[in-house]
Amino acid sequence: MGLELYLDLLSQPSRAVYIFAKKNGIPFELRSVELLKGQQHSDAFAQVNPLKKVPALKDGDFTLAESVAILLYLSRKYEVPDHWYPQDLQARARVDEYLAWQHTALRSSCTRAMWQKMMFPVFLGEQVPPETLASTLAELDRCLQLLEDKFLKDQDFVAGPHISVADLVAITELMHPVSAGCQVFKSRPKLAAWRQRVEAEVGKDLFQEAHAAVMKVEDLPPADPAIKEKLKPSVQCLLQ
Amino acid sequence: MWQKQMMFPVFLGEQVPPETLASTLAELDRCLQLLEDKFLKDQDFVAGPHISVADLVAITELMHPVSAGCQVFKSRPKLAAWRQRVEAEVGKDLFQEAHAAVMKVEDLPPADPAIKEKLKPSVQCLLQ
Fold first, then answer.
1. Is the pTM of this model over 0.80?
2. A113 lies in which domain range?
3. Contacting residues of A for B38, CB less than 8 Å apart
4. Predicted confidence (pLDDT) per residue in B64-113, tens digit
5. Cβ contact (<8 Å) for B38 and A51?
6. Which of A54, A148, A166, A192 could form a disulfide with A98 if both were Cys (CB 3.0 to 4.6 A apart)?
7. Crossing angle, helix A67-77 and helix A12-23, to 10 degrees?
8. Is A50 part of the contact surface with chain B (CB cutoff 8 Å)?
9. Torsion angle of alpha carbons A103, A104, A110, A111, nearest 10°?
10. Would you identify the family this protein belongs to, as annotated (chain A) (predicted)?
11. Number of domains chain A is built from
């Protein structure tokens, strides 16, 4: 059995891994884990990732969790073009710096923004207090400002002059609140220009393919009660 | 660490609702279980048979709630044994030197009002 990638394209980090693997022609079997059906909680999947999250990787007997670890493993194993994770000491450190910051910053606010604006009311039928949503959107705004000022600055890409895994991680995050109707790029021309560049580098078709599922999330029918019961516990923390 | 007995109540003089603290400690417990079951397993160190940067990141994190009086290692012999190994590899003196300041955090006098004003906005998110 070759490389298997366990993904749900509704998840931002799953999209980053998908785009990276496809763009680099890395052969893999796609194993779909449908989060909204609670499939991440199955015993079978726990064998692959006891953390019960996607993306997850299985390469022969080797299993790996955490999108950043997976992206770096793939870039090393398949010897992808240098710009994705540059060998140069400081260029690489810039990518590492973004990858480390984004977990508790942009990722956190993008996930909560999307869930509070879309998933809770539409899918789970649960009202989110307006002040909670407002606070989350303010936090998202703060992170976007940091993304522009500290990371992007006057560069073409997040960690330097060339596209890297940092850009894939960033763009897939930003598409999350976009799918929920947040006008992330409208008032931020610098980010909008960066997005165009990333889409051009990735290829429009691949970019759209990776985002097809999440862009249709507003058309999801409300979850049935059984699913609600299954999912509610693990998403309660997103209500803050 | 901020919620328990320590930074919010002692340093900032701000009460933390008991249910908030309880929920945080439950979350900490959940993470400690994952650390033991998914990462440490039967290995000597977090990422394999040898100490790595992962162990330094993990141990310094765990010493944080310890400094606030959370008995992180008491009920978890596997983690306690791992801690001993990490301290031995790092060297007891260096380990203690690195943690001297945080272990004395309970002796910090309450913050003066100017400092409180300055710090409060950026630590509010730690109250969840």
1. yes
2. 87-236
3. 50-51, 65
4. 999 888 989 999 999 999 999 999 999 999 999 999 998 988 788 888 88
5. yes
6. A166
7. 10
8. yes
9. 90
10. Belongs to the GST superfamily. Theta family.
11. 2
Q: Which residues of A185-195 are buried (b: 16+ CB within 10 A; e: fewer)?
A: beebeebeebb
Q: Does A240 touch chain B (CB under 8 A)?
A: yes
Written as six digits, the tokens of A142 are 């703060």
Place of tokens 């073409």: A156
Does one domain contain both A68 and A108?
no
Domain-terminating residue out of A51, A82, A113? A82
Q: Which of A57, A82, A107 is the last residue of a domain?
A: A82
Instruction: List all residues of chain A from 60 to 79 with a beta carbon under 8 Å from chain B.
Output: 65
Structure tokens of A9?
């394209």
One domain for residues A95 and A45: no
Summarize pLDDT for A46-101 with one digit per residue, the tens.
Answer: 999 999 999 999 999 999 999 999 999 999 999 999 999 999 999 999 999 999 99
Residues A52 and A95 occupy one common structural domain: no
Q: Is there a contact between A51 and B128 if contact means CB atoms under 8 Å apart?
A: no
Task: Give the pLDDT score at B5.
Answer: 65
Question: Of B63, B59, B60, B66, which is closest to residue B40 (Cα–Cα)?
Answer: B59
